[in-house]
Amino acid sequence: MHILQRKGNRRFHDPVKMVTQLNSWFKGRLHAEISEKSCSMSCQIRIFFEADILLTPHGAGATNMIFMRPRTVFIEAFPPYFLECMFMNLANIVRVHYLSIAVYNETFLAKKVQPGDGEKHYELGIIMRTRRRFINARVAPSPSAVFPAIQERCV
């Protein structure tokens, strides 16, 4: 399993902790490691091609999913209150099993967003119009949300 770490705002908050917990939970049935997105294009293609399971924050680099083998697993993690479906559609085209992890808490928010905005935009029914405001935030999915997605693939 590869956990793809980005540079900039939309990166995993603590990928080392996530790797440690996943390796502990799966006790030898899974080997999780962190891969940096900042490597060359050929390196990124290799990471996507070799991964049985790939966990990545939402971003343009996820288009490299086209290099994944059919029936492998692509897990996309979103910043708080952000949701986008384009990679789900791409996964369907390339026959990759797609899972998403959405976070609805205010642990990390984009600079343009005030506390409470996410809930307010959902209540007003405007979140799909305003969701781009929420994109530039760190991604911190709960390991308990990642675990079932990976367990489904490992069992």
Automatic annotation (TrEMBL):
Pfam families: Glyco_transf_61 (PF04577). GO terms for molecular function: glycosyltransferase activity. Residues 3-75 form the Glycosyltransferase 61 catalytic domain. InterPro entries: Glyco_transf_61_cat, Glycosyltransferase_61. Keywords: Glycoprotein, Glycosyltransferase, Transferase. This is Tetratricopeptide TPR_2. It comes from Blastocystis hominis.
